[in-house]
Hints:
A: 4 domains, B: Glutaredoxin
Amino acid sequence: MTQAxxxxxxxxxxxxxxxxxxxxxxxxxxxxxVCQAASCLSAxxxxxxxxxxxxxxxxxxxxxxxxxxxxxxxxxxxxxxEVPQTGQLFENVRADDVGDLVEALRTVAPGAAPVxxxxxxxxxVRVATENSGRxxxxxxxxxxxxxxxxxxxxxxxSMTPAEVLDEIVRSGLRGRGGAGxxxxxxxxxxxxxxxDAKHVICNADEGDxxxxxxxxxxxxxxxxxxEGMAIAGYAVGASxxxxxxxxxxxxxxxxxxxxxxxxxRAGLLGEEIADTRFGFHVEIRLxxxxxxxxxxxxxxxxxxxxxxxxxxxxxxxxxxxxxxxPTLINNVETFANVPPIIRNGGDWFAGIGTETSKGTKxxxxxxxxxxxxxxxxxxxxxxxxxxxxIGGGVVDGRPFKAVQTGGPSGGCIPEQFLDMxxxxxxxxxVGSIMGSGGMIVMDDTSCMVDVARYFMDFCREESCGKCIPxxxxxxxxxxxxxxxxxGDATLDDLRQxxxxxxxxxxxxxxxxxxSAPNPVFSTLRYFREEYLAHIQDxxxxxxxxxxxxxxxxx
Amino acid sequence: xxxxxxxxxxxxxxxxWRIVDTRMRRLGERPEALIEVLHSVxxxxxxxxxxxxxxVGASLGVPPSKVYGVATFYSFFTLKPGGEHACVLCTGxxxxxxxxxxIVAAIRRALGVGPGETTDDGKLxxxxxxxxxxxxxxxxxxxxGEVHGKLRPDGVVARLEAL
Lengths: 554, 163
């Protein structure tokens, strides 16, 4: 099969039987793991899989496996193929050029010394993404062969809900969606809440632009999320779970549907899991493109079929959530951490990371960085290690300017904090947030005022309009920022910007408005001279804004 | 909550309504199924017109004001028919700092359409997305359901003009 030419429109293939890899006789001597996550698929890794399977069959190898796997991490160099026996990673593989790969598979000897891993991989510690790039995301048997559902089976057959809660509390796991609320505490609150009907919701509405961790986990290892949800259901006493997933992630939705169907057939979801009296059902609810639905109460309104507008808390969803029942809401990555915590114990998890932030965190590295992709590192890893050692530094050797974390609710962290260990507290200390894990590197071609304006534009459009500080405030902040980037502002506008940002932060109803001014605060704090250059000198140091010459808008 | 009377008739005898009806039945024809059903309608017809909104509302027992409110609240739903081809350009952070703005400007110059607009010949609708999650290949777009990454303004324009 050859690469379809770019100009002709490809017909979407009708749903057909999944082509299988070559049939093995006995155990595999060598295997080729072909990444089938969205990024590699967009570079036609499905064709790479088929071509490679064909060539391996043609070559008559009977001890070489060709397998579809989830995200291998180094998304920028896709399609990726890994030979796990030697650790070799083949980048930018093309369907019509798999000769080298076939040769490599021919010569892999059992027990061969693995090639040293590039720092991109060697520095990582995989917990939530331990199966990414290893198991076939659409094959339950493969997940089970890698300890899948052992944790759930153990929980329902030999642990009490209280023991599960203790284990999660002991692990020190904190919510991976952004705010970092202790997961064990949240579970306990829901478990204690009166009422017999409770719900579990998995927040898979990854709204931050520049973040794709949850997407990758769902596409690479959907069963793990279901297992984590079922364990949570057992611990808090819920029998129904919902995954609220973005409609913009069709591949993740398709794989989740497959996973739910397969797990149900195998008796791992539904009634009487593992022949016990515990039952847990999972349904998917599609989001429809509203950033505010990342907020718990707005998400619940959306799952109930309405406009995603938040309501004041308390009552917290843990007490009165979906259909006024006690509801546990955790993010995808939080649930993904649960099965390994149960398998290895809370103390094991608590042994990773820092004093206040335990475990690992998945980050999506993007922007002006060499190795864009997905990385998982222990909490407490420094920004410098992430950006330079793992990320390979800034593209074209340009000077580093800032790293943006936390999306529109976060901030820009300048160079002087590169040696800071990353955890919830340290990021908050420098005026940003952990957020869901998007990390966008910026170099001297980015104007920080323009970046602040960009995020304010985002918040202005995504504001649900329910409360006035957010609805009107973000619009006015955007107007002021635009005035600065267009060279029409005075120092008085700058003062007004700061006052208004403070007001929006303190008076908005929900997290969206409360955190919308964060990018403004952090850029003002570290890059105030850029604001002043626009206002006083009518110049944009990065050459991005139309301060002097209005023709370059765009 | 309005009293649900007899099930209304579909707006037309278009067979695609059967898909929508099946979906509504499976979801139990309850008000909370509204978003799921609107997804089904949009998937089948490409957009949500007034008749469709009225029909879905009547079938699920949701007042028209609320149906319209939901359909306009979420950016994924569109009330206008799209062009023959759909180009969704990502304007997420990673794409933005890698030049997505320049691509929007280049398309506007060459084809005369801005975000949310359709060309006069009905051939192409240009849409922008907050983030496609394809940040590793930024700037990225989805053209007729397929993700394309590492875009350059001239390459995108050439590809769109060749449609």
